[in-house]
């Protein structure tokens, strides 16, 4: 007597009879890696399971093309030192020197730890002058992800993809996250970080109308809507009283003082959502 397991049926065979059983629910076929062929019926990993945003949720107040808004370089840092230090520490923990890294929606600054030399760092963004100044990039591409979500990379090109303080500008995040999945090697990591600062007119309405908690949930859902990402991990570092956050017992006095400029506003909250393609690797 012998048996074979095929994706559709479980055949249990001996020489005298042949019976077909439906695939038991506990036995799952391993999804094949996304192969970029949208007509493939076999592939499930990397597919978009459902859309997260409504049409209204994708809208921006400023409807001019993003390339116009980013036409002039902005040589500024978009978050404070405390945020950057939390992010750099996270990169120090999760990224290894042999990694090939894609910095999505990048600019003239890098938050990678200076002391680590990575195998390759590729930048992507909308302003070539900013990207040309970024000291960490081996090369860069300029592409408007709200016009076209396809990235010109082979499948499984990167060990890590980073997106820093920019996810709020994506109008088709589901497609971008699926495209990141395709570009990641199995076990590769996608780190999406953000704070509460934004170019208000360029952020999507679902982001503008939300709170810190709601924005974290939104990014978690962007990951969850793509088949094959691991359960997203959420990292939060909110300002304490030491960092300038208003003590609970002095509200609303602190709030009034901040409004009148007598007390500096608190530092930037740090949020990161992290997930891996297929599995989280264990490093020795
Ligand atoms: C707030 S900046 C953050 C830059 C950088 N990640 C950092 O940490 O400093 C937002 C970035 O998102 C990029 N961006 C905005 N809209 C975009 C779009 N439609 N397509 C591609 N990149 C976009 C811009 O190039 C800009 O550099």
TrEMBL record:
InterPro entries: Methyltransf_11, SAM-dependent_MTases_sf. It holds the Pfam family Methyltransf_11. Residues 130-192 form the Methyltransferase type domain. SUPFAM superfamilies: S-adenosyl-L-methionine-dependent methyltransferases (SSF53335). GO terms for biological process: alkaloid metabolic process. Transmembrane segments: none annotated. GO terms for molecular function: S-adenosylmethionine-dependent methyltransferase activity. This is Uncharacterized protein LOC104244600.
